[in-house]
Amino acid sequence: MENIYEKYNVKKVINASGKMTILGGSRVSSEVLESMNSGAANFFEVKDLLDKTGEYISELLNVESAYIVASASSGIAQSIASTITGDNLYEILNIHNKNNKKREIILPKGHNVDYGTPVQVAVEMGGGVVVEAGYANACKVEHVESLINENTAALLYIKSHHCVQKGIVSIKDYVALGKKYDLPVIIDAAAEEDLNVYYNEGADCVIYSGTKALEGPTSALVIGKKEFIKTLKNQSKGIGRVMKVGKENILGLTKAIELYVNKNKLTLDEQRERLKDFNGVLNGIDGITSTCVQDAAGRAIIRALISFDEDKLNINALEIAEKLKTGDVRIYTRDYRANEGKIEIDIRDLSDEELEFILIRIREIVGK
């Protein structure tokens, strides 16, 4: 087999940071690759393929409607656009037509985050104008309700570890506001693992990245109410055309979803057990403490949280994280708390050999 790393002189990466877009999301299985190969090797009416795979997925998930798009960011942009344009072809073709004032998109202030690009960028691509509700650490129902007016097009909610987790209005109350004022509620749940919970709570549209929990190719799944998804499909005549998804990725994601809903996932205890020896080795090094922690956003994900004592090691966590990214094999960890002296190891895409290699590199870097 051709060695891509040698041919293009790119660095090999060990992904201990999780399902991160900058590293390509996830490894895809041989079954998914087989479906992608079938897509790449054959011709289809793409609209027909999208419609039929959407119907198949909606039956798998027991939801009204489903549709595959190019990415979660694309899903946000097209969903926002559909709330502004409806079925009006002129509006679809002139998405940024300023004569249409009804384009305000309300979201909690603590949700207007940068996930690689600001949420605001995706909203504005879809013709929306972001209106932030509440404060960075507090957004209540009354904060959102006070902003609703004749120009409000939709309510947007971002379910992500990037967002503020405390003091924010619940999805249940957010959906209730949408129903009260007849406004669609859009939820970006890109990295979330439960494909039904937010739909079952009444959201009109929920967006999932294809490359994260679903372990599919670059793509995204949008599920929701039938009328909403019907309107979203119309964006293929407008901005949807410039962010189209390929036939191989349509079939790849469909297969990935089929596998995902039938997959036996590791329990929290099983994940802790897999980290037991890893943590044990690190805890034997003076100046390092490693323990298991659950994902801050509440997902069923256990990671190793490694704390480094700079006084004992003569090197801080930021420096360690950067050194791990050097060499012939670059190790990417979760570095959000490196300024606090801590990094996290996500094991979902790590082999046992890679986990052992991370131990070796940490010991080399700290001189133990």
UniProtKB/TrEMBL annotation:
<dbReference type="InterPro" id="IPR018319">
    <property type="entry name" value="SelA-like"/>
</dbReference>
<dbReference type="GO" id="GO:0016829">
    <property type="term" value="F:lyase activity"/>
</dbReference>
<keyword id="KW-0456">Lyase</keyword>
<dbReference type="Pfam" id="PF03841">
    <property type="entry name" value="SelA"/>
</dbReference>
<dbReference type="InterPro" id="IPR015421">
    <property type="entry name" value="PyrdxlP-dep_Trfase_major"/>
</dbReference>
<protein>
    <submittedName>
        <fullName>DgaE family pyridoxal phosphate-dependent ammonia lyase</fullName>
    </submittedName>
</protein>
<keyword id="KW-0663">Pyridoxal phosphate</keyword>
<comment type="similarity">
    <text>Belongs to the SelA family.</text>
</comment>
<dbReference type="InterPro" id="IPR015424">
    <property type="entry name" value="PyrdxlP-dep_Trfase"/>
</dbReference>
<dbReference type="InterPro" id="IPR006337">
    <property type="entry name" value="DgaE-like"/>
</dbReference>
